[in-house]
Amino acid sequence: MSDFTIYHNPRCSKSRQTLALLEEHGVQANIVEYLKNPPSATTLLALSKALAIPLADMLRTKEDEYKALGLKTFSGSDQELAELVAQHPKLLERPIVVSEDRQHARIGRPPESVLELL
User: Nearest to residue 62, comparing CAs of 77, 52, 72?
Assistant: First the structure.
């Protein structure tokens, strides 16, 4: 079992670069292809806590779904937002690497930012 999990989109160059960087440092991360296996609302809230940023700051604001759902002016609760993101995982910024033992996470933009977890 790995001490790291990466929420990964294999079609995303930054996600692939981050995964490669982890592997270069000897990390065999548990890979979650979040578009195929979307994280639950509970998991999304835990990721927000591990990242130490609001859930709203974990979103891809240029996605069509972001605009279609009116998220720029969203005024619901974090729980409601997490439920929306769980239904529309494409909204989630990628990749996210989580250090399971320390309960910290980093978004791999730039990919080198995840090295802080090692």
Answer: 72
